[in-house]
Amino acid sequence: MSILTVALFEAAECAELASRVRAHEPHWTRRSTNEFFTLGAASYMDDGPIYLERANTINPLLEAGFGDLHERIRTALTEQLGAPCAFAAPFALPGFHIWRVPGIPTRAEASLHFDMQYERVPFPEHARSGFEKPISFTLPLVLPRCGGGLTVWDVTVDQVNAFYRRTGYSVTLEDLRLLLTSRHHAYEPGTLVVHSGHMLHQIAPVPAVEPDDERISLQGHGIFYDGEWKLYW
Question: Residue 68 needs a FRET pair 20 to 30 A away by CA distance; which of 4, 77, 139, 161 works?
Fold first, then answer.
């Protein structure tokens, strides 16, 4: 799956949505000492019972504060994917990444990864068929003055696993990156970005940040089973 983009919100709408995220700061979860937070439960960070407990607590706040945003996302994904989309209760609703200086990456040090957080979510057994072709999506609301985006390498998790099986090499993704050519996908506030999550990627660094820069984005994933895309975070 290539990267799909859908323009959804104008600048004024992004600013208003970002203000709502800031208004919920008492409910943010600090994820590092470098001013990185989330609003919402995140399956790639929250383990088992903690994930479900946090989702149960924060989902009503997200629904009340961002229900219109979620519906806009759900409708857009339904149109673009050509299949029904629904939020996968009791799992986490799509939530937010919030980065402030000094957490905003200015060097290529962010996690190099594939999105495989579905393995940490207690989906029903028959949902596993959907793990082969998931989606991940990002809606940037605020970016640093120097921009922001995604660094992508044209290699999939299946290709990497096949390489490991054939060669038996014990190398890291960082090692493999030396053999691959990267490309940069620039983000635009208000434009939804959708991809499989199974291509190697990393948060793109920015060359510099100003003291009051922010990076706020909505984040979510989807798995297809029971005839529809189940959206969650």
Answer: 4
